[in-house]
Specification:
The chain has 725 residues and is α+β, with helices and mostly antiparallel strands. A hairpin with a 2-residue loop joins β20 and β21. The strands form 6 sheets. A 7-stranded mixed beta sheet has the order 2-3-4-1-7-8-9, with helices on both faces. Strands 15-12-13-14-11-10-16 form a 7-stranded antiparallel beta sheet, with helices on one face. Strands 19-20-21-22 form a 4-stranded antiparallel beta sheet, with no helix packed on it.
Length: 725
């Protein structure tokens, strides 16, 4: 009996598809059923060949051999996943397999994963595409009932190839050029470099900033406090203290009149649903989760728990054909903290769809919303519950009525000077009920009007200014980027461009990178030691700042990179020629290499230690990794790394901050910024019985992320875990 081969992107997804399709027999890298055989990749199984496979001369990094511009890009099997590739290849060659279903992630990169495997295996038989936005059993069954010919996604595949080849041509050429020219481990890329340039530019703006003193004047009236504002400019800051003192002298103890009292009923509409970038921003603000960590959590909620829809989306809306599913989705989440909120919407049939439905604003995928899968909160980790809570409450909020309130504004005029106050009375909580008593984000600036309870007054009432006080302040420099604000800047880089025409262009091109790639770009900035984190703030290292001084000016421009993303989107919709784009990238890569070759700039290692690399003898560099300090060899061919300290999850018993684990071997010890010290051995004795096994496993796994490992620490924690078994 002929069988259909189903190719998933990951084993976990493959097993879920196999379960729904009734494939229960284990095979070599697959699960077999009567009608289907389900197999999977392990992410990418095939990739673009390294430069040395085009020419032996590229085995050595030499400036004179650049640029590298192979006429035809080659595909190679990734060595680490070669066993699974061979298993997939054998399945594709089975005589009883007569068709293929591409079931990799429904997006640009997922298309590339499957098509490169098919190309390398020589697949020539019919192929169809599974395109679903959730992993529930219902969505999978419906998806298999509506499979589309793979050729309908050829343009998406061409876009993915263009992205991969452009990154190879630009990234590898400029990286080699910079590394050879300046004798340092330097990397560059078409999205990474302009993103770093924004961080470096912000740091330069902060360093150049000169704070100015200013003063504000607050007047205390019976029942309320008023903020003085200039009658014409409405500016509350005075940059001359003598003016502020003269103002206080002028109005103190004087009577005035309420020259304006207005009451206005206002409505605040619900926010739009989440796309990936917005959800990553909120998770960073609320829980300090990195963009990559949030994406991983959402992916788990999508694939494993089937509670959220496809995460890698740039849309905040759904299509009108999804409207009938909204009640079922509300019923699915009507448990725990969401029970009364969801039940209220269902009971009153009050959920509005106008704020979430817009066919024109849905691209490949709709907004991130809950699925019809019944919610079981006890099956989620604390991190998963936090992120799910954001998505669930936003979903409820979007479907809720507006927030209605009455705003009262008062203007008191004393001796011709105006003092302003405002207050709010909530008439209907509307969508804000979804967030309970969570406080709104508000400004801490003294020169801003604060909401306050106002007395019952009317225009024309006489009032006496009981007292007036001066408050001093200083103008603040631009805030450093956090991951949340950097994601915003990457999404809307036009805010950083002064030229109005260029600003308009960049705002319509979709920004730097895509929602699916921005988290990885930020992680690369940490892993290459261009950026370090202090609290939530992102600060460029000397290496990162110097790189921006060395990189070609074109490569630092958010405009050019955003335009490329726009071109890739046009290719994916069949509106732009893919080969013309690659030709442009080849020309551009050659021009960038030429600019680096002729540069007269210099690079200086200002973090060199006196400790030599045990492998090559060069002096090691002291760097701050994302998870602690480490010594790194500057020789790109050596690659030696040694951890000095790791920020652990162990809490200081004095101040409860996370402690660093320092030292080597038996001398390992925990150290806190407050001065507390404790050896690892003592810590194990005191805390071992209290540490949960899952916490240890999660911590060990976390230390292996991002290429930053501490094998000694992992062994110690593994031993502790074994003692607890």
């Amino acid at each position: 009996m002929p069988k259909t081969l189903v190719l998933a992107e990951k084993p976990s997804v493959g097993r879920e598809l196999a379960r729904v399709l009734g494939c229960r027999q284990n095979g070599n890298g697959c699960l077999i059923g009567d009608k289907y055989i389900v197999t999977w990749a392990l992410g990418h199984l095939v990739t673009l060949a390294d430069p040395e496979l085009y020419d032996d001369k590229y085995k050595s990094w030499r400036l004179e051999d650049l640029p590298m511009l192979p006429q035809n890009m080659k595909l190679v099997i990734i060595k680490e996943t070669g066993k699974q590739f061979k298993a997939v290849q054998e399945l594709m060659k089975r005589p009883d397999v007569d068709s293929l279903v591409i079931a990799t992630d429904a997006g640009r990169e997922g298309e590339l994963v499957a098509r490169w495997i098919m190309q390398k295996c020589g697949w020539k038989k019919p192929a169809r595409r599974l395109w679903i936005s959730s992993q529930t059993d219902k969505a999978i069954r419906e998806g298999f009932q509506h499979l589309k010919p793979a050729r309908e996604y050829d343009a998406l595949y061409h876009s993915a190839v263009c992205r991969a080849e452009a990154d190879w041509l630009v990234g590898l050429n400029v990286t080699r050029a910079l590394s050879c020219k300046f004798n340092a481990q330097l990397t560059a890329g078409r999205v990474q470099t302009p993103t770093l340039a924004m961080i470096v530019q912000r740091e330069q703006d902060i360093h150049r900033f000169v704070p100015k003193d200013y003063w504000t004047v607050h007047g205390q009236f019976p029942g309320f406090t008023g903020l003085w504002k200039h009658a014409k400019t409405q500016e509350s800051r005075l940059f001359d203290r003598s003016e502020a003192e003269a103002l206080v002298q002028k109005v103190s103890g004087k009577s005035g009149v309420l020259s304006e009292v207005t009451k206005e009923l206002k409505k605040e509409q619900p926010p739009a649903a989440y796309d990936l970038t917005e959800l990553q921003r909120d998770a960073n603000k609320r829980f300090n989760y990195s963009a990559k960590q949030t994406l991983s959590i959402i992916q788990n909620l999508y694939e494993r728990h089937k509670l959220l829809t496809y995460p890698r989306t740039d849309s905040r809306y759904i299509t009108d054909d999804m409207a009938p599913t909204l009640p079922e989705r509300l019923r699915a989440i009507a448990v725990g903290p969401y029970a009364s909120l969801a039940a209220g919407l269902l009971r009153n049939n009050a959920y509005s769809t106008k704020r979430i439905i817009d066919n024109a604003k849905v691209t490949d995928h709709h907004a991130i919303i809950p699925t019809e899968q019944p919610l079981n909160l006890s099956a989620l980790t604390a991190e998963e519950r936090n992120v799910y809570d954001l998505a669930a409450r936003r979903f409820i909020a979007v479907l809720s009525p507006p927030f209605e309130y009455e705003e009262t504004r008062i203007r008191a005029t004393v001796e011709g000077e105006n003092f302003h106050a405002k207050g709010k009375i909530v008439r209907s909580p509307g969508w804000k009920a979804a967030y309970g008593s969570r406080p709104d984000e508000d400004s801490d600036d003294e020169d801003q009007e604060k909401e306050q309870s106002l007395p019952a007054v009317k225009k024309g009432d006489q009032v006496r200014l009981q007292s007036a006080k001066i408050t001093a302040g200083k103008t603040k420099p631009p805030a450093r980027y956090t991951e949340a604000t950097l994601l915003s800047a990457m999404e809307h880089p036009g805010k950083l461009i002064e030229d109005k025409a260029l600003k308009q262009t960049v705002e319509t091109t979709g920004g730097l990178g895509t929602p699916a790639t921005r988290a990885d770009i930020i992680e690369k900035l940490f892993n290459t030691f261009y950026v370090e984190k202090r609290g939530k703030e992102l600060i460029p290292t000397s290496k990162g700042s110097q790189l921006i001084g060395l990189a070609p000016s074109d490569l630092k421009s958010p405009l050019l990179t955003a335009q490329w993303e726009s071109h890739l989107a046009e290719i994916s919709h069949g509106k732009r020629d893919d080969q013309a784009f690659i030709t442009e990238m080849r020309t551009y890569a050659a021009r960038l290499v030429s600019m680096v070759k002729t540069s007269e700039a210099k690079y200086t290692h200002d973090n060199v230690t006196r400790e030599k690399c045990p492998q090559c003898g060069k002096y090691l560099l002291d760097v701050n990794g994302k998870k602690g300090r480490m010594l790194v060899c500057p020789d790109r061919d050596c690659g030696y790394r040694q951890n000095i300290s790791v920020v652990s999850n162990a809490r200081c018993p004095n101040c409860h901050k996370k402690m660093e684990l320092r030292g080597q071997g038996d001398k390992k010890m925990f150290a806190c910024t407050c001065g507390y010290r404790e050896s690892l051995a003592e810590f194990e004795k005191k805390k071992g019985a209290q540490v949960h096994k899952r916490d240890i496993e999660r911590y060990i796994a976390g230390q292996k992320d991002d290429g930053f490992t501490n094998d000694a620490l992992a062994r110690q924690l593994s031993q502790l875990k074994n003692k607890m078994k």
